[in-house]
Amino acid sequence: MRIFVVFLLFLYLVLVNSANCLFKNVLSRFYCNNENCYSVLGVGENATMNDIRLSYYKKIENIKKENYNMEKKNKIIKAYKILINKQTRKYYNYYLKNPNSIINIINLFFYYIYKLLKIIFILILIILILYLFKYIFIKYNMNINIKKYSKKKLFKKYVQDRIFKEHPNYRNYDLNTKRKVEQDIEIKVFQEMELLNDRKPTQSKNGGSGSGSGSGSGSGSGSGSGSGSGSGSVTDVFIVQLLLLPKYILFYVLWNIKWIVKYIILKEEYDDCDKMYITRKCMNIPLKKWNMLREDEKKMLMKKKLWIKQNQEEFFEEIKEKQRLHKISSAKYKKQMRMKKKGLSFNYND
């Protein structure tokens, strides 16, 4: 009902008042306010594009020689933009002859729609180009990984078995067909092996294996799937990530605002999710790896209470001490000490 009332009101304003005061102001601001764009540039209505361009450059040069009036310069630039564009000039000529016509508003509406469509088209084109590069990169990485796998006897055996299973008459194929079939089967076998690697961390976690094997296989499969199959998950596709980027930025900004207000200004106690986040960050554990850990392992890490500043400082001191002891016990460090005693220079990083 409300929409119907609004529509009737709009129809009244359009049909009874034609281009009412509001629309008149909008149209006036879009063009050259109360001035004539042709008069601003000092050209007639029948002026050619070259005449408009020449007059514009002369006017700009004169402004530079004078006191450089910024307001006057903006007027000239606006008039030039209106008249140099064939579409806007056509609309403006109609506006001069029929200033109260509703067609002026329709023209303005279509002009902005056209501009918006142009921007959308350019963005889609950029996204498609980026997606193409992403696709080429994934295919390139897949080919490299398949070459590495093809050196393994087990992989070769799987490929051969699959070829003869799916193509019983493989031996009778010509050379080009054989090569194509072999490449297709290699890709299938490689993707299946990558899928099995992705499932290993979940199976080891459910089976009750140690955290070392779970996290190790998780990181291995993660890198493998990223460089190999790549296109297995929809969220891994670059175009989707690019489209979701504004959403991620908004969430990140809101999350930071919430954090500052809640914990820095109001000084409230950390909730369970944020306690977990601080623990992960202090221990440098990515979210994917954290999710692979068993519940008892998570509880053990949470017992450190790293969200408390004192515990956090003690934890970092402990890490520094471990790194120092590891450095002292290393062969490179011992060699450095021996060379220093002999008076020779030695860079530990070498």
Automatic annotation (TrEMBL):
Region annotated Disordered, chain positions: 199-230
Biological process according to GO: protein folding
Residue ranges occupied by any J domain in the UniProt entry: 36-96
UniProt keyword annotation of rRNA processing present: no
Endpoints of the signal sequence: 1-18
GO CC, alphabetical: endoplasmic reticulum membrane
Segments passing through the bilayer: 109-133
Gly residues bias spans: 207-230
InterPro entries named among the record's database cross-references: DnaJ_domain, DNAJC25-like, J_dom_sf
Topological relation to the membrane, as annotated: Multi-pass membrane protein
Recorded superkingdom: Eukaryota
Main localisation: membrane
Keywords, ordered alphabetically: Chaperone, Membrane, Signal, Transmembrane, Transmembrane helix
Subcellular location(s) of the protein: Membrane
PANTHER family named among the record's database cross-references: DNAJ HOMOLOG SUBFAMILY C MEMBER 25
Protein name per UniProt: DnaJ protein, putative
Organism: Plasmodium ovale
